[in-house]
Amino acid sequence: MDKYLKFSNKEEAESILFDKVEGGLVPKFDFSVDVIGQIYKQTGVVINSKEGPIFETTPVSGWHVNVRGVGPDDFSEYEVTVATPSRAWA
Question: pTM surpassing 0.85?
Answer without folding.
Answer: no
